[in-house]
Amino acid sequence: MKGCLLLPLLLLGTVSALYLEKDAPHLDGPETQEDPSQDLEGSGGQEGELSLCGEVLESGGEEAEDAQDDVGDSDPDDLDEAVQCPKEEETVQLPASSECKGCRYRMVLTPRKFKNAQRVCRRCYRGNLASIHSLNVNYSIHRLTVTTNQAQVWIGGFIRGWFFWRKYRWTDGSSWNFTYWARGQPKFGRGHCITLCTRGGRWRRAPCRRRLPFVCSY
C-alpha cells in the first residue's frame, strides 16, 4: 500500500521540478552576465560626465540651436552694441601667472552670452576672453573659476565652419596651440563656443547663446 502511495508522489515531484526549471530565470545565462553599467563609452557614461558640467544630453532640437549660434555667422568681437561694465563686486581677479607676468585674468560672475562677454572684456578691460596656451595657465584659470556656482564659464575659444572645414580660434587672434578637451569633446559636443568646466578644468563646446560667467585676459 505504501509503495502505491510513493509512486504518485515521486511522479508529482518530478513534474514540479521540470516546471520550475522551465520557468525560473537562468542565472548563468547571457542576459544576467551582461552589465549595462559597464558601457561607459556609450550614452550612459557620456551623459554622466556631461551632467558633471551642468549639461544634459537632449534628444532633439540640437540642430536648430546650433543653426542660431551667433558666432557661426558674425565676429564675436563686434563692438557695435553698448556695454555696461560690471561692478567690482561682480568680478574676481587672479594675479599674474609666472608664465606671463604681464597677463591678468578677471572672472565676471554675471552670466552673459559669448558675444556680450567678449564685448565686456574689450570695452571694460581692454582685453579679450581668455586664451589658454599651456596646462599651467589652464590650471590658474580653473582655480579662479571655482569661486562661481556655475558648472561652466566662457573662455575665448570659438569655432568657425562645419564638419571637415571646422577651425578653432581664439578671440584675441593668438595661435591655437593647446587644448584640454573633456572626454568625447569636441567631436560629440554641440555649439560653436568653448567653455571651461569648473569641475576638472576640461573644455567643452556649448551654444554661444547660453548665458555663463566668463574669464577676461588683459
From TrEMBL:
Alphabetized PROSITE patterns for the sequence: C_TYPE_LECTIN_1, C_TYPE_LECTIN_2
Annotated Acidic residues bias: 60-80
GO biological process per UniProt: immune response
Keywords linked to the UniProt accession: Disulfide bond, Lectin, Signal
Residue ranges of the region described as Disordered: 25-80
Keyword Disulfide bond: yes
Domain C-type lectin: start-end pairs: 105-217
Keyword Signal: yes
Signal peptide start and end residues: 1-17
Pfam families: Lectin_C
Any one GO molecular-function label of the UniProt entry: carbohydrate binding
InterPro entries for the chain: C-type_lectin-like, C-type_lectin-like/link_sf, C-type_lectin/snaclec_domain, C-type_lectin_CS, CTDL_fold, Eosinophil_major_basic
Top-level taxon: Eukaryota
Protein name in UniProt: C-type lectin domain-containing protein
Organism of derivation: Moschus moschiferus (Siberian musk deer)
Organism phylogeny: Eukaryota, Metazoa, Chordata, Craniata, Vertebrata
